[in-house]
Specification:
With 391 residues, this protein is α/β, with parallel strands linked by helices. It contains twelve helices and 16 strands. The chain has helices at 11-19, 41-51, 78-87, 104-107, 121-130, 150-157, 196-203, 211-215, 246-250, 257-280, 316-333, 349-359; strands spanning 4-6, 24-26, 33-37, 60-62, 92-97, 112-116, 134-135, 163-165, 177-180, 187-190, 208-209, 239-244, 285-289, 306-309, 337-341, 364-366. The termini are far apart. Bound molecules: threonylcarbamoyladenylate (TXA) and magnesium ion (MG). Magnesium ion (MG) binds next to loops. Magnesium ion binds next to loops.
């Protein structure tokens, strides 16, 4: 099958493909999605097949407005309406009890359905034109970084889907926040650009954080409520490790100017040492840092390591925007090891760090320990030490 790529002018054709049971990738403000008719079990099966995704991992159902929600759910609590009115269209997915018309193929066998209304004019027009809700996981091969531009989708799915609607690079760059409203307490299942603080302020209640987010979904005995959080995710081909300092971690990066300069120096020195050892061993190495620190990596010797600045750490959204693109670039370059700085978990930083930790398989080390050969046993000495761990 040939995969065609079109912009806004392709919306009607895309809608016809969906109504015939085919697949169309679509732009959103977070990442590109891989769409099929959410009410058609066969379309959902095709989505799993195209992505190579385990079929117990449910799909998010995309709607174009709040009025399209009631037929999809068996309960519609006030709390859900409040959040939809405050944040839709936008990067928030809400889990509710499903109605019978939503097939188990779409919900991965669950009695609940995750619903979201994305903020993108092409996709809103596309959903309206099809007249059905659109099931859509991120449009990447399962396990790979989510696509933040149409070219990424093409790379992963060409020949496997009928069409890609291209609306240029996305704005946010990491997937939507997911909140589960089916239990006694609203629970965050995946951090995104809408923060826990914003959610609890709008709801006027506390929002619990699913323990699996902190453990990365890889710890024994912790079962994430969002099944997708348990799989290895966003993984570049390279092995990747995050580097921090003990003080930064303890204070979640709330440091004085002097302390910050010292922490930056320790992290840079540690990364430079690890990079030099790897390069001496003939490995191809990459560094992920921010505008505030990048000059610290240029200083020494004839380093060949590829230094990628992903944004300003003072503005985590500038970094979410670049993270997945940078990971894909490292793949294209054949990079074998990546060392990345760690950043604060505050606000949108929680979403950024969640994706960075998962990309690194939860491997986060302290520069204080002067680590060598950090990939040897692959267990993070910092796992469980994340700032939200006590909530
Ligand atoms: O920003 C986004 O949400 C993007 C764009 C395309 O909308 N979509 C996306 O979908 O990230 P996906 O399939 O890559 O991630 C969906 C996540 C998975 O972790 C899945 O387990 C969880 O949502 N999920 C879906 N339905 C659920 C449900 N009923 N209960 C709990 N978790 C659910
Ligand atoms: Mg995904």
């Amino acid at each position: 099958m040939e995969t065609i790529v079109k912009g806004m002018e392709g919306v009607q054709q895309a809608a016809e493909i969906i109504r015939r049971g085919g697949l169309v990738a679509f732009p959103t403000e977070t990442v590109y999605g891989l769409g099929g008719n959410a009410l058609d079990p066969e379309a959902s099966r095709k989505i799993y097949a195209a992505k190579g995704r385990p079929s117990d991992n449910p799909l998010i159902v995309h709607v174009s407005c709040i009025d399209e929600v009631p037929p999809l759910v068996s309960e519609f609590p006030d709390s859900a309406r409040k959040l939809m009115e405050a944040f839709w269209p936008g990067p928030l997915t809400i889990v509710l009890p499903k109605a019978a018309i939503v097939p188990y193929e779409t919900t991965g066998g669950l009695e609940t359905v995750a619903i979201r209304c994305p903020e993108n004019r092409v996709t809103l027009a596309f959903i309206k034109a099809t007249g059905v809700p659109i099931a859509g996981p991120s449009a990447n091969t399962s396990g790979k970084p989510s696509p933040t531009e149409a070219a990424h989708v093409y790379h992963d799915l060409q020949g496997k889907i009928e069409m890609i609607l291209d609306d240029g690079p996305v704005g946010i760059g990491v997937e939507s926040t997911i909140i589960d409203l089916t239990g006694d307490v609203p629970t965050l299942l995946r951090p995104g650009a809408i923060t826990v603080e914003e959610l609890s302020e709008t709801l006027g209640t506390e929002v619990r954080i699913d323990p699996a987010i902190i453990a990365g979904g890889v710890k024994e005995g912790v079962h994430p409520k969002a099944p997708g959080m348990k799989y290895r995710h966003y993984a570049p081909n390279a092995r990747m490790a995050l580097v921090t300092t003990r003080l930064s971690k303890e204070r979640d990066y709330a440091l004085s100017e002097e302390e910050r300069a010292e922490a930056d120096q320790m992290v840079a020195a540690c990364i430079v040492r690890l990079v030099d050892a790897d390069e001496a061993a003939g490995l191809r190495v990459g560094i992920i840092c921010c505008e505030e620190t990048w000059a610290r990596y240029l200083s020494a010797g004839d380093r060949r390591a590829d230094i990628k600045v992903i944004g300003r750490r003072s503005d985590p959204l500038s970094m979410t925007h670049e993270l997945f693109r940078v990971l894909r670039e490292f793949d294209e370059d054949g990079t074998e090891r990546i060392y990345a700085e760690s950043y604060s978990d505050r606000g949108v930083g929680f979403a950024l760090m969640n994706r960075m930790r998962k990309s690194a398989g939860m491997l986060e080390v302290c520069a204080d320990d002067q680590p060598t050969d950090v990939f040897r046993n692959g267990i993070s000495p910092l796992a469980g030490l994340q700032p939200h761990a006590d909530k």
